[in-house]
């Protein structure tokens, strides 16, 4: 059962995850570290979220990672991430990784699917261009179709046409639909895969994952008894705790940092 967390309140789940020997804090970016914005590339982490992340990343046996559906290249831009960063990255829903002190990881092996991303873009673009406010995002392994700036009826119509196109010509590509976005990928990984990869990479004894959208539920369902899932905003969820917005995520992360620092003294 999901419980709403009140900022400033004590919580046994936060205390437990703060005390785990090796902690990975994994965060979705859009809608979690950053407010949702109309222009996808203008998203940036809130300063208070960034400050809490920096506190956590400075603690022993603690790793912070952004886990996003964005291509790794775009994620690095919006996360203002450079080669000296202490923050790990998982892009393309768990298909791409960047690790502190190592850099870009070798791509994971994947099964081949029919068609190329360029063929998908070429086929979808005439549909998308007919609808004002609907935008094509070219991704490393596929595409995203954004409807946040479109009228609801235009978003729905564009999504329906693109769905029909992909079902006919690219039937084996993985489909995801989130908050004003429809995505297709030639890679079949999800954020559940990212939880497993990060757990193994950093020998985590506990993972705190926070996300706000349907695709984040893959990660939340993959968490185990020693982990903690947090949902940002409304919607059905497998998370243990819920907060209202990224501002409250900053407060929650700050509370974990405070408790973890105290537990390590």
Number of strands: 13
CATH architecture of the largest domain: 3-Layer(aba) Sandwich
N-to-C CA distance: 33 Å
Query: DSSP strand (E) fraction?
Result: 15-25%
Count up the domains.
2
Structural class comes to alpha/beta
Oligomer: single chain
User: CATH topology of the largest domain, which one?
Assistant: Rossmann fold
Count of helical segments?
Answer: 8
Q: What is the N-to-C order of secondary-structure elements (H for helix, E for strand)?
A: EHEHEHEEEHEEHEEHEHEEH
Provide the spatial order of strands within the biggest beta sheet.
1-13-12-11-2-3-4-5-6
The coarse overall form would be globular
Q: How can the largest sheet be summarized? A: 9 strands, mixed
CATH superfamily of the largest domain: HAD superfamily/HAD-like
Mean pLDDT across residues: 94
Highest-level CATH class of the largest domain:
Alpha Beta
Work out the radius of gyration.
Answer: 18 Å
Low-confidence stretches: none
Which percent bin holds the helix content? 25-40%
